[in-house]
Amino acid sequence: MDIGFIGLGLMGWPMALNLVRAGTPLVVWNRTAARSEELRAAGARVAASPAAVFAGAEVVILMLAGEEAIDQVLGRGTPAFGDRVAGHTIVPMGTTSPSYSRGLEADVRAAGGGYVEAPVSGSRKPAEAGELVAMLAGEPTATQAVRPLLKPMCHQTTVCGPVPNALHMKLAVNLYLITMVTGLAEAVHFAERHGLDMRRFLAVLDAGPMASSVSRVKALKLVDQDFAAQAAAADVLMNSRLVAEAARESDLASPLLDVCHELYGETVARGHGDQDMVAVVRAIEDRTATRQAHPGRGRT
Question: How far is CA 187 from its chain centroid?
Answer without folding.
Answer: 24
